[in-house]
Amino acid sequence: MTQPIYSFPGGLHPADHKAESNGRPIQSAPLSPRYLIPLRQHAGLPAEPLVQAGDTVLKGQPIGAPGGRISAAVHAPTSGRVVGIEQHPLAHPSGLDDWCIVIEADGRDEAVAMTAIDWRQAPVWEARAALAEMGLVGLGGAVFPSHVKLESHLNKIETLILNGAECEPWITCDDRLMRERADAVLEGAEIMRRLLGAGELLIGIEDNKPEAVAAMRAACAAAGSDAKVVVVPTRYPSGGAKQLIQLLTGLEVPAGTLSTDIGIQVFNVATAYALQRAMELGEPLISRVVTVTGHVARPGNYEIRLGAPIEELIQLAGGALPGASGYLVGGPLMGFDLDSLHAPVTKGVNCIIVTHPALFPPRPRAMPCTRCGQCAQACPANLQPFEIFLYAKAKNLDKAQAYHLADCIECGCCSYVCPSQIPLVDYYRFAKSEVAARDREKQAAELARDRHEFHLYRLEREKQEKAERLGKKASERLEAGAVAADDPEAARKKALLEAAIERAKQAKAAVAPANTDNLSPERQAEIDAIEAKRKEAGQKETTP
Amino acid sequence: MIGSPFVLLEKNSVRITMFKVMLALIPGTLAHAWFFGPGIFVSLLVCGFFALLFEGLALLMRGCCFRNFIGDGSVLVTAWLFALSVPPLAPWWLYAIGLLFAVIVAKHMYGGLGQNPFNPAMIGYAVLIVSFPNYMTQWPGPVHLVNHVPSLAEAFDLVFAGQGSISVDAYTMASPLDTVKTLLRAGVAKADILANPVFGRLSGTGLEWVAGMYLLGGLALLANRQITWHVPVAFLASVVATAGLLQAFDPTNNMGPLFHLFTASVMLGAFFIATDPVSGCSTPRGKLIFAGLAGFLAIVIRSYGGYPDGVAFAILIMNVAAPFIDAYTQPRVYGHARGGKVGR
Fold this sequence. Notes:
The complex is a heterodimer. Chain A is α/β, with parallel strands linked by helices. Chain A folds into two domains: 27-316, Rossmann fold (3-Layer(aba) Sandwich), CATH 3.40.50; 369-544, no CATH class. Chain A contains 15 helices and 17 strands. Chain A has helices at 124-132, 146-149, 173-180, 182-196, 210-223, 241-249, 269-280, 310-316, 374-378, 385-393, 397-402, 413-417, 424-480, 488-509, 521-536; strands at 27-28, 34-38, 48-49, 56-57, 62-65, 74-75, 80-89, 97-105, 159-164, 200-206, 228-232, 264-268, 287-294, 300-305, 326-329, 336-337, 351-355. In chain A, the strands form four sheets. A six-stranded mixed beta sheet of chain A has the order 1-14-13-17-15-16, sandwiched between helices. In chain A, strands 2-8-7-4 form a four-stranded antiparallel beta sheet, with no helix packed on it. Chain B has two domains: 11-173, no CATH class; 176-328, no CATH class. Chain B is mainly alpha-helical. Chain B has helices at 14-36, 39-62, 66-69, 74-85, 92-107, 120-131, 133-136, 152-161, 168-171, 176-185, 190-194, 207-223, 230-249, 257-261, 264-273, 284-304, 311-327. In chain B, α1 (14-36) runs antiparallel to α12, α2 (39-62) crosses α4 and α6 (120-131) crosses α17. Chain B is built from 17 helices and no strands.
């Protein structure tokens, strides 16, 4: 029975530019003299350094421990000496500097003792625990810590999908990896299948990579695996996790949930390869294959240690040709501009494209949106991108959210086809960050209000308690002196006290948790300030 | 700084889109010249001139990047559609007034390209038919039926210098829709009306060819993915259904679906005017509702309204409702279950 192929809406057929770099085998990069190992190369919390300046390290030695549950370890790519922990520019869309462990290589490339894990025999928990130390993250670009994705899930994982679609133009590192190391990739996937207890293993590959398809099929046959290699039509963004799931299973991941909630887990082929090395060789993630292409002398794929400067990678590819205008990290549809060539190769860097104005003409000045709907026809999430754009531009965040801003995967299809050349995705990124900032502010304002109300309540309560205490004391004193009952002065005092106690009782009965009456001017001002803040945060005003 | 994507579809811009729409209008325009004389070329030129003039003035007054917008072609499409909707050989000031309302009032007063709630060409047409109904009925007759076909030079004279030696009756004739309206009202039998030489096989003689050429141009736009099938299919289907129903109920007083289908304004409306993305609907279901109701209204106005044609009014009325229809016809978004299956 052949595996059915479904479809997803929208999508593109951009010029794929795969031939530039997919013709030559993966080349190993020589060692660099100096490595920068950023502590944050993954989604989640940064790693915590385990070494300090002056320490000597060996290849594969952990130098940063996971900083939390969603975090990943980092390892020394080669043997050498730690010269410091410094801030350096990184290959990241933010363009910000971040902390890196700087290692000077000693050239000996001595490794720590690495022990393979017998994943076929060892209990699943043991294999998982070992993995958590290996620094594995999703190598397709999302860099989410892999061991978290391989934990046991609430829902049973029925289908494991291996993502070999590689739908972005120019990138060919997964293609070459599948062609050359299909057995290891498949074994990595089989390990994942075992760890997840998944029944079905589907390997999705676009039909523009027939060699990779053949290699993976041969590997399946050789290993006697029942994994199915599914050839999907070449259409960007088939390699988006949600789109590949839709292509291979016909299922949509419900909004606001994870694919594991419907029993599906997706991994990139390069991640499977890294996992296989971690299990079979005990080697943590210290290298990856990177495509270097575009306006360079020798485009190709290079296996390089993590932490090496991107500049060296470009030199390996023969250097940028004259007229180069810049550098992109990742593909041209979802990648980003690289600010500094000194930035190191990190776990998420799958491709470096050297740009030239002829290959990447500058975006013309944007015209107004004419609601032509080309973007809606191209959107794989079935959104009405122009509506979100118009509301994002007007900073009407509620409306942008109502038109499902949150379901945008930022694939760039809408921007690509826009006849008005509007940088639509930039508007979505802006709106998403504004929404996040507004939510944070709203939470902070709510917290401040709760604290303030409790503060008022406590003051009121203390006042009550004091009055009660005083009243009680006075009545005790009065009862003690009851013999002098005919003393008119004492009788008057007793009456006054009784009245005070009565008043205190009434006040206690009337106490409300959020009483903001009879406030001092300072308190009123404080409340006003909070109210103003809340209004600013767009929340409907409610009188406390 | 502008982020990803760093690649764009080639040969894709507002200007190119507008250029393609104008290319698609060429067959219909040529058919018009073939059957009704070269006067259409003069009115096209005059309309293009006034449209660009008003566009330029409005852009300068608004102080918003004259150079980026003057060449976007959108105003030329407006001018072309307007020129095809009003009679050629009318005095120049008629075109000027129509385009003043189309370009300045309907387009730029609402914010220019992409902002107009109404189709500008149809606003220009509506202003003229309400204000100058007599000029708007003086359509040149088919060349084989009129006494005199004005040459290009005579056409220039007529437009700029007025009547001169040629009498209006020498080259104009009541249009088929006018004929139908007046004669049906006068109680003339349908068979007798259709015996009038102004009618052809399907609809007006010559006009049915113009309609056919609009259809051809529209199909080219469809094939080139400049428009989607929703609007033309819904509009034409609704025209046929409405006309068919009316004819079934009252055959003596209503023309049949084929007659209505092959009138030039229906084809122009279906492929070039109701498809205007700015003033129309954007969602697939919205387009079906928008165009379906527009087609229905067009035939109802034709059959029961005071004006011989109803396409322009129908589309303008539906323009009002377009944002509302869009809001209630949003497609199901990935991962949201409403009306679809999500998850296992």
